[in-house]
Amino acid sequence: MEKFLLVEKDGPIVTLTMNRPEERNPLTGHFEEFVDACTKINADLSVKCVILTGAGPAFCAGGNVKDMRDKKGIASGTSREIMDGYRNGIQRIPLAFYHLEVPSIAAVNGAAIGAGNDLACMCDIRIASDTAVFAESFVKLGIIPGDGGAWLLPRTVGMSKAAEMTFTGDRIDAKEALVCGLVSRVVPAADLMKEARALAGRIASNPGVTLRMSKRLLREGQHMRIDSLLEMSAAFQAICHSTPEHEAAVQAFFDGRSGKK
Predict the structure, then answer these.
(1) For domain 208-258, which CATH number applies: 3.40.50.1950, 3.30.360.10, 3.30.450.20, 1.10.12.10?
(2) Pairing mode of beta strands 49-54, 104-108
(3) pLDDT tens string 118-132
């Protein structure tokens, strides 16, 4: 069977495409592929940016509701077995994306429902097609966000909007997603990947070591005291000042001011 997660590398940019369009790209049973992809990206220092998207009309439908109905897969077994299934299954995805060292862009092409909505929130930047819809819909199925959504969503849209989305399970369209900060940009569906690649290209034009350290600082800044973060920033800056990329960038700056080519 063809892999669920297609991996395409174009220079410093990796595109990850969820590829079960006929099923609306459910995550169930494909957790290991995300973990493997993130591990390989971290080890490849030539990678500077990642784009995550879905094949077909949907971004990601979240979990497989049929498995819930039939008590299969992650929904099978005793309560303890289900808990362990979450720990060793879908919960590995938010950890893998949290520890992904390079900037990531979710190009949300269609419905991002339940775990699909949370998957988009695992990325650093989200842009959406004008046909995209979002929902933190777990409550509609009598379950809670078992994939870290209660941590991810408030950090993305703020506590009030996260609570509204979580407690109602209501869908919001791309326009509302832009207003509440769930996405930073909405583009015509036909232009989504072009816009995502252009954004990734602008990111990837910068030094890879600087991008990785900048992302690490943003991550640590979510929980670290300011004095601790400043100390870490000083150490990272000392490293940056010693890199050939920094020297080349400074020289390019002065060449540009002087009109040299």
Answers:
(1) 1.10.12.10
(2) parallel
(3) 999 999 999 999 999
